[in-house]
Amino acid sequence: MAKLGEASYTVSASVADTIGNTTSTTHDVLVNTAAPQVIINAIGGDDVLNVAEVSVNQTLSGRVVNAEAGQTVTVSLGAVKITPPTVNGDGTWSVSIPSADLTALGDGGLTVTATVTNQAGNQGQGDREIAIDAGLPGLRIDTVAGDDIINAIELAQPLVINGTSTDLAAGSVVDRDGQR
């Protein structure tokens, strides 16, 4: 089996009993060991988002080879969780990144990663380095309650929300839903 190449094959079997009765059957199988290729297109035209570009939603897009339409593309942009897009019939995918998420990342370089698994179970990943150069402070909220799900026990206890900031002056006040 190790010598089979990437292709469709028909497996056939037949059997005869002691009095000469025969029966046979066939079954089609596909050998697919090739990992998908994942391409991430430039964001903002040049992979450097300025203040005007982070102030509006941006589209992150790309294409995949060797993955079927409807497969989920898992996309991460630094610490931002992105609603996963799916592969279109022509192999392309795209997702809108909200301005608030881009602003929260703050200035600096980060890696965009996109991963897809084809129907055969082969996984492929693409990476692209981008930068935000908008002169903005960054503010990130860490995972809440260990899994971003607050259960009944956690709801009955004081909730601590942690995070980090960049490019903020010492003593800056952070508001939560309009409260300090």
Can you give a write-up of this model?
With 180 residues, the chain is mainly β. The protein folds into two domains: 37-132, Sandwich (Immunoglobulin-like); 139-168, no CATH class. It has three helices and twelve strands. It has a five-stranded mixed β-sheet with strand order 4-10-9-6-7. A hairpin with a 5-residue loop joins strand 1 (7-16) and strand 2. The chain is elongated, with a radius of gyration of 25 Å.
SSE layout and pairings?
Elements: E1 7-16, E2 22-31, E3 37-40, E4 48-49, H1 51-54, E5 58-65, E6 73-77, E7 80-81, E8 92-97, H2 99-105, E9 108-117, E10 123-132, E11 138-141, H3 152-155, E12 163-166
Parallel strand pairs: 4-10
Antiparallel strand pairs: 1-2, 3-5, 5-8, 6-7, 6-9, 9-10, 11-12
- The CATH class label of the largest domain is Mainly Beta
- Biggest β-sheet: strands ordered side by side in the sheet: 4-10-9-6-7
- By DSSP, the count of extended strands is 12
Major sheet description: 5 strands, mixed
The CATH architecture category of the largest domain equals Sandwich
Shape: elongated
| Contiguous runs where pLDDT drops below 50 for at least 5 residues | none
Instruction: Determine the number of helices (DSSP H or I, runs of at least 4 residues).
Output: 3
CATH fold-level name of the largest domain: Immunoglobulin-like
Domain Bacterial Ig-like: 67-133
Pfam family, one: Big_13
InterPro entries: Big_13 (IPR044016), Ig-like_fold (IPR013783)
Protein name: Bacterial Ig-like domain-containing protein
